[in-house]
Write a structure and sequence with these properties.
About 25% of the residues lie in helices and about 25% in strands. By secondary structure, the protein is of the alpha/beta class. It folds into two domains: about 5-145 and about 190-300, Vaccinia Virus protein VP39 (Rossmann fold); about 150-190, no CATH class. It has a ten-stranded mixed beta sheet with strand order 12-6-7-3-2-13-14-1-18-15. Strands 4-5 form a two-stranded antiparallel sheet. A two-stranded antiparallel sheet has the order 8-11. Strand 9 and strand 10 form a beta hairpin. Bound molecules: S-adenosylmethionine (SAM). S-adenosylmethionine binds near residues 31, 32, 254 and 255. S-adenosylmethionine (SAM) binds near residues 205 and 237.
Length: about 325
C-alpha cells in the first residue's frame, strides 16, 4: 500500500485551504492553549481565543469527511483564582458552526508533577473533546477493547435477577445493560478516561503528546489507508504514529524548527522523501536541500505492510 505523509510549514488557517473538502477521516490535535507557552510558540489570549480558533475549526469542518471525527486536546487554566471559561465558550460556538459535540474523553496524566496550591490540587487531566459532523461516524470499538480485569471475577460470580435481563436506563436514554452478557469474556470496552503518562523527555517539544494518545484514537476511528490530520503538528507525534499504523497523514506547523524536527525524524525513521516538482499546479524553484521553505512536502512513509520504492526516491 502506498501511503502519503504531507507536511506543511505555515499557519494552519492558510494551509488548510490546500486540503480537499471531505477528505480527512480523523483530526487529532492540540493547539496552543490560551495564554500559555508564549515564550515557546506565541500564545493567544483568553479573550481572543474563540475568535482565533473559529475560522480554523470552520476549515476543519470543511475538510473532515461526514464519517470522520475531530479530537481536540485542550485545557483551560486558572486565572485570578478561577478556571477560565474559554473552552466552554468555544464548544458552544463550534456547535453553532455546525459541529456535534459528541463526547469528552479525559486524559488522566498518570505522571503529573507533584505540587501544592493553597486552594486546589494538582492538575492531572486534560480534555479530549470529540466533535463530529454527523451522528453516523466511523468507530471501531473492538480495536480498543481492554482486558476485563479482576472486578469481573467477583462481580460476575453472583448475578442477581436484574443482572440476567436487560436493565434499561431509568433516565430514558435508550441504553441498557445485561451484565450476564459479560460472563466468560476476557475483554471489555474501555471507559472514556485514558490513563496515559506524559513522555516529553525524549522529544524536543515542550508540549508533545505521548504516542499512545493519537494511537488510541487512530485505532478507534480509522482503518489502514485512511487519512489523519494534525493542524498543530508540533513534534509530529500524530503524523509519525499515523504513518507507523498504515494511515496517510497530513501535518501543519507554523514554527520552522518544529517542521524541520519532524522532517529529520522522518529521515531518521528511514522514510522516503519526495520533492514535488509542481506544487498545487504551480512550478517551484525549490532545491531538494531547502527544508524550511513554505512549500508543501510529501514524505512517502514506510507502510505497515510494505514500502513501494521507486527510482525517484531519496533517503537523505
Ligand atoms: C501544543 S503544540 C502541539 C504538540 C504536538 N501535539 C506534539 O505531539 O508535538 C502546538 C503546536 O502548534 C503550533 N502552532 C501554533 N499556532 C499555529 C498555527 N496557526 N498553525 C500551525 N501551527 C501552529 C505551535 O508552534 C506548536 O508546535
Amino acid at each position: 500500500m502506498d501511503l502519503k505523509n504531507d507536511i506543511y510549514l505555515g499557519d494552519c488557517l492558510q494551509k488548510l485551504q490546500k486540503i480537499d473538502n471531505n477528505s480527512v477521516d480523523l483530526i487529532v490535535t492540540s493547539p496552543p492553549y490560551a495564554d500559555q507557552r508564549k515564550q515557546t510558540y506565541g500564545g493567544v489570549s483568553v479573550n481572543e481565543y474563540v475568535d482565533w480558533f473559529l475560522p480554523i475549526s470552520k476549515e476543519l469542518l470543511r475538510v473532515l469527511k461526514p464519517t470522520g471525527t475531530f479530537i481536540l486536546n485542550i485545557k483551560e487554566k486558572v486565572q485570578n483564582g478561577e478556571r477560565s471559561t474559554y473552552v466552554l465558550e468555544l464548544i458552544l460556538e463550534m456547535r453553532k458552526q455546525g459541529w456535534l459535540w459528541t463526547e469528552e474523553f479525559i486524559w488522566h496524566k498518570k505522571n503529573c508533577y507533584p505540587g501544592k496550591w493553597p486552594n486546589r490540587f494538582r492538575d492531572a487531566w486534560e480534555r479530549l473533546l470529540q466533535f463530529n459532523k454527523t451522528k453516523k461516524f466511523n468507530m471501531y470499538q473492538e480495536e480498543v477493547m481492554v482486558p476485563i480485569g479482576d472486578w469481573a471475577k467477583s462481580r460476575l460470580k453472583k448475578l442477581s435477577e436484574t443482572d440476567k435481563i436487560r436493565d434499561n436506563s431509568k433516565v430514558g436514554s435508550g441504553f441498557g445493560k445485561n451484565i450476564s452478557n459479560w460472563v466468560n469474556r476476557d475483554k471489555a470496552y474501555p471507559t472514556n478516561v485514558l490513563h496515559l503518562a506524559t513522555e516529553c523527555s525524549n522529544k524536543n517539544h515542550s508540549a508533545a503528546f505521548p504516542e499512545s494518545l493519537p494511537e488510541w484514537f487512530i485505532k478507534l476511528f480509522t482503518r489502514e489507508g485512511d487519512t489523519v490530520l494534525d493542524p498543530f503538528m508540533g513534534s509530529g507525534t500524530t503524523n509519525i504514529v499515523a504513518q507507523r499504523m498504515g494511515r496517510n497523514s497530513i501535518g501543519i506547523e507554523i514554527q520552522p524548527e518544529y517542521y524541520q524536527m519532524v522532517k529529520n525524524e522522518m529521515v531518521e525513521r528511514n522514510m522516503i522523501i519526495f520533492e514535488p516538482d509542481v506544487e498545487y499546479g504551480k512550478s517551484t524553484n525549490h532545491t531538494s536541500n531547502e527544508v524550511c521553505g513554505s512549500q508543501h512536502r510529501q514524505l512517502s512513509p514506510k507502510s505497515y505492510k510494505q514500502v513501494k520504492r521507486t527510482s525517484t526516491e531519496k533517503s537523505s
